[in-house]
Design a protein that fits this description.
two-stranded parallel sheet, 8% strand, globular, 2 domains, mainly alpha, cell cycle, 3-stranded antiparallel β-sheet, DNA polymerase, domain 1, hpI Integrase, Chain A
């Protein structure tokens, strides 16, 4: 399959370079399938833009100016948000760094790109009442109801990532020790504790889970056989139950339940270091966004100001 790029004496197309890069991510970097798909989708947009605007060129002809024009295209024509553009810049930097390491180019033109300023929005999460509604709509009479409610509770009671959940094996669950082993970003292993609610839920699910050869914890029956559930199937079940629950002002996703897990724990005085370990954040700065959601805690904090006499002194009425 021909693409818009050729590479000097190698005559490699951009598609071939991208495929080589994706293999590198999987084999040498240990990237998850979710991350690899994200890289591919982002680079595919870049490839199509170059093909449309410049035709067949050498990868060495991709300059900083070319990349800046591409960013304008993302902003003006595709109307990408600052966050999306920043993500695409990160993808380009990684891709061109790989090409430098493989001696296809001498310098990385994406390193000088400035990322757009992204507004820092507070994480949106479900209230305890909304969580209750979301859990209650799973009809026990529906096919896969036990599987679905177990998946939802696992997100809500452990803060697990979607990619981590779909990769879970039965052998990763230790009900005796009340913990599960997950492989997070960068192939980092961590242990998640299980509270009483999710331990009981997993116990029941494992008792009724089909006895099949595949070791995947959560199964789907497709074309006459069982296989592990995938990301899109998880997204579909979330959309279905969120619609039934009538939660329309918040897009209920697996990641939204991760936000909910973290936000509600912090509101109940779980410290930031413990929260970092539970979420698997390599940098505590990432975890600190949840400190801004604890408004009630902040209200209690400002009540501790030593100005109680101010009401009388300045004749303030109750």
């Amino acid at each position: 399959m021909k693409g818009p790029f050729t590479m000097g004496e190698t005559n490699k197309t951009i598609a071939e370079h991208v495929q080589d890069f994706l293999i590198y991510l999987r084999v040498e970097r240990g990237s998850s399938s979710h991350s690899i798909k994200s890289f591919y989708n982002s680079l595919r947009v870049f490839e199509k833009y170059i093909s449309r605007e410049m035709g067949v060129i050498s990868i060495k002809d991709i300059t900083l100016t070319v990349l800046r024009k591409y960013l304008l295209y993302l902003e003006d024509e595709r109307e990408n948000s600052p966050t999306t553009r920043a993500h695409k810049i990160s993808t380009l930097r990684s891709f061109f760094t790989y090409l430098v390491s493989e001696s296809y180019i001498d310098q990385n033109p994406a390193l000088k790109l400035s990322k757009p300023k992204c507004s820092k929005t507070l994480p949106v999460y479900l209230t305890p009442e909304e969580c209750g509604r979301f859990l209650q709509v799973v009809d026990n009479n529906l096919p896969n109801a036990l599987r679905d409610i177990t998946i939802i509770k696992l997100f809500l009671f452990t803060g697990i990532r979607a990619g981590e959940l779909i990769s879970l094996k039965v052998m990763d669950v230790d009900l005796t020790r009340r913990e599960i082993k997950v492989i997070g970003k960068g192939s980092k292993e961590r242990i998640l504790p299980l509270n009483t609610v999710i331990t009981e839920q997993l116990t029941r699910y494992l008792e009724e889970r089909p006895k099949v050869k595949t070791g995947a914890l959560f199964l789907n029956y497709i074309h006459g056989g069982y296989r592990g559930i995938n990301q899109e199937e998880v997204n579909i079940l979330f959309r279905k139950y969120a619609n039934i629950a009538g939660i329309k002002n918040k897009q209920v996703t697996p990641h939204k339940l991760r936000h909910t897990f973290a936000s509600l724990l912090h509101q109940n005085d779980v410290n930031i270091v413990d929260l970092q370990q539970l979420l698997g954040h390599s940098n505590i700065v990432t975890t600190q966004m949840y400190t801004h959601t604890n408004v009630e805690r902040l209200k209690r904090a400002v009540e501790k100001l030593p100005f109680k006499e101010a009401r009388t002194k300045y004749n303030l009425k109750k």
